[in-house]
Structure formats: C-alpha cells, structure tokens
Amino acid sequence: MLWREATARWLFMRGLSEADNERLRVLSERFIARKDFSGTHGLEVTDRMQVEIAAQACILVLELGFEWYEGWSEVIVYPSQFAPEREMMDEDGVVHLTNDPMAGEAWLGGPVILSYEDVAMSGDEDVRVAGYNVVIHEFAHKLDMRNGDPNGFPPLHAEMNPKDWKRDLAFAYDDFCRKVDDADLRAEDDEGEALDALPIDPYAATSAGEFFAVTSEAFFETPELLEPAYPALYEQLRLFYRQDPLARLTGRRPGR
Ligand SMILES: [Zn+2]
Fold first, then answer.
1. From the CA of 172, how far away is ligand 1's center (Å)?
2. How many CA atoms lie within 13 A of 29 on its CB side?
3. What Å distances lie between residue 99 and 15, 41, 110, 138, 212, CA to CA?
4. Which of 44, 79, 206, 244 is most buried, with most CB under 10 Å away?
5. What separation in Å is there between the alpha carbon of 33 and the centre of ligand 1?
C-alpha cells in the first residue's frame, strides 16, 4: 500500500499508534485534495511524492487541525535545490542580487516551495544532520506565519503562557548560538567535530524564526537529542504541537 511504503522509514513515524497513523493518513488525504501540487523543470509530482509531502506536512497539525494550513493553496516542487535571484539589502542599506541555492521556501499567504531531492533525504540517517527534514521545516514556518512574519512566535493556545514561550525559546536560542560560535572557532582544529556534535542543525542559529523551524524538525525527528539538550524548550513545543514524540519513542508517560 502506497501510504505504508511512503511513510515507513521516517523517523517521526516511530512509535506512532495505529489509530494516530490512520488519523495522519486521513489528514494527508485531505491535504492532497485541498492543495495544488505543481512541478517545475518538467518534474511530474507523482502520487507517491504527494503522499510524502502531505504526510510530513500533516504530522505538525495532527493535534492542531487542518485549519492551520488554510488560506493558501500551492505546493511547488523543484527536482533539486533552486537558486532564485533575489535582491537583499545588507546592514549598510546596499541592495545585492543573490542566488543562493535553497532546499525550500515558505511564503506568507503564498506557496510552499520544496526541492524534491531534499524531501527524499528525510529519514536518511547518513545525510547531513540527523533529523534534517525540509518539509517539517517549511511547514513550521507556515504555522509561524499564521500571525505575520516568521519570527519564532506562532499563535499560541489559550492555555499556554506567551512569557514562558518567549523565555524558554530565547534561553535555548542564546545558548545554542554560543555553542555554534564556539564550534565554529574550533572547526579548523577539530575538523568540524564540535559542529557535528551539536544536538540540532547549526542553521538554527540564523534567527529566532529559523530556530523555531529547525527545533520543530528535531522535535519530531530526533526528540531523543532535543529534549535532553533543551528540556524547557521541548516542553513548550510539546504544549504547542500537543504531541510528545519522545514519549512515543520511549513509552514515557505523556506529559510531565
Ligand atoms: Zn527556514
């Protein structure tokens, strides 16, 4: 069956109950029915590719509901990384034309754009950082954009405390940025060993918005690395996503 085949190897499926697996499948079907998929450069977005993208996107909203993905409709798939020409303004107010290769992009009120080569890397333990998941990353930005620019502050649930969210994310972000700086300094001597040993992708140190997207990848894909490193942040993400991927993995009693 296509669903089983497409989803079996993913890290975030580990420990998911049969009932949750079925709910995720139904949600993914809804996603495929409601979103328009299009390929670029002659890429045909096959049924299997649609299932792969939909399932990875829907794990984020399994307990939030499909409404979180309403208000836009397009998923654009490139065969591999893409390099759109962009004008970027630097700190001195000078505008540069850039064309850095990208694995994915999420537009405020617009499409999600993905490199299929990167989508296919999810679950591949040998590739890049363990837990690398471009679909979870871009759709975390989409959730963050429910209340404007992606700044690491998505709309929180009524039972959550925004002050706690801010404090716990800022603490983890500052600590992580320091660790990345240290690891960068040592990279020449230790051949990047300290960078490789970081619990999450160093790209998280780019901004608070990227930190939220990358820690969301880790929350679902490698909670066994994220939770011990940043337990308070993990707890905030658990409250936000209303899921406990680590409990699914270890059989730990949900919640604390
Ligand atoms: Zn990002």
1. 17
2. 7
3. 40, 18, 20, 19, 24
4. 244
5. 26
Q: Return per-residue pLDDT of the chain as tens, 256 residues.
A: 899 999 988 889 989 999 999 999 999 999 999 999 999 999 999 999 999 999 999 999 999 999 999 999 999 999 999 887 777 777 788 887 777 788 999 999 999 999 999 998 886 665 555 678 999 999 999 999 999 999 999 999 999 999 999 999 999 999 999 999 999 898 888 888 888 889 999 999 999 999 999 999 999 999 999 999 999 999 999 999 999 999 998 887 655 4
DSSP secondary structure code for residue 82 in this structure: B
> What is the distance in A from the centroid of ligand 1 to the CA of 103?
9
Please give the distance, rounded to the nearest whole angstrom, from the Cα atom of residue 253 to the centre of ligand 1.
32
